[in-house]
Amino acid sequence: MGTMNSALEELTRLYEKLQAKRDKLKEQLQDAEREFDAISTTMRLLGQGSPTINIVNVEGMSHLEALVAIAKANNNRVSVRTARRLMEKAGLFKNPKNASTVLYTTITRSEKFERESAGVYRLLPESESEPPALLRSIAS
Predict the structure, then answer these.
(1) How large is the C-alpha radius of gyration of the chain?
(2) Helix/strand/coil for 59
(3) Which residues, 6+ apart, have CB-to-CB distance to 62 below 8 Å?
(4) In 10 A of CB 111, how many CB atoms?
(5) Which has the closest alpha carbon to 82: 103, 97, 98?
(6) pLDDT tens profile 102-137
(7) Which segment of 1-10, 41-50, 90-99, 120-129 scores lowest on mean pLDDT?
(8) Measured between alpha carbons, how far is 100 from 98 in angstroms, rounded to an integer?
(9) What is the mean pLDDT of the chain?
């Protein structure tokens, strides 16, 4: 009977500890929500809309295909940070530590993007008349 009581006491302590942890996390979430609302309000007052990012399912795509899909869904713009998060969730990186480097390399080698600002690239319009870079280099 003593072991049953000690196990019950241990479970009660654990329950209370987890309840306190949950309450603390709820407070942190509420703080983050207030900060988010404040930033959104400030952006609206400055005449800027809240930045919205359209989420795209990139599972099973190559890195370049995923970058192009994300850009097309977001007004032909892609943020490396956002793309990295989406692509990591989809499991497109064997080693997530190298994800940013992989994305920058993919973007620069593809010649499909133009740098707008730090970490933000614009998808260039597709030109039917111009062959891909690989074909151009083979032809010359």
Answers:
(1) 24
(2) coil
(3) none
(4) 13
(5) 103
(6) 899 999 898 899 998 888 899 988 754 355 555 555
(7) 41-50
(8) 6
(9) 81
Give Cβ neighbours of residue 77 (< 8 Å, ≥ 6 apart).
Answer: 71, 116, 120, 121, 122, 123
Residue 88's identity, in one-letter code, is E
Q: What is the pLDDT of residues 87-103, one digit of tens each?
A: 888 888 888 888 888 89
Is residue 120 a contact partner of residue 79, using CB atoms and an 8 Å limit? yes
Tokens matching residue 33 = 């929500």
Q: What share of the chain is helix, strand, coil (3-state, %, to 5)?
A: 60, 10, 30
Give first-to-last CA distance, the chain, whole Å: 87
- CA-to-CA distance for 70 and 52, rounded, in angstroms? 13
Judged by DSSP in three states, 76 sits in coil
Tokens 């400030």 sit at which residue? 42
The DSSP symbol for 75 reads T
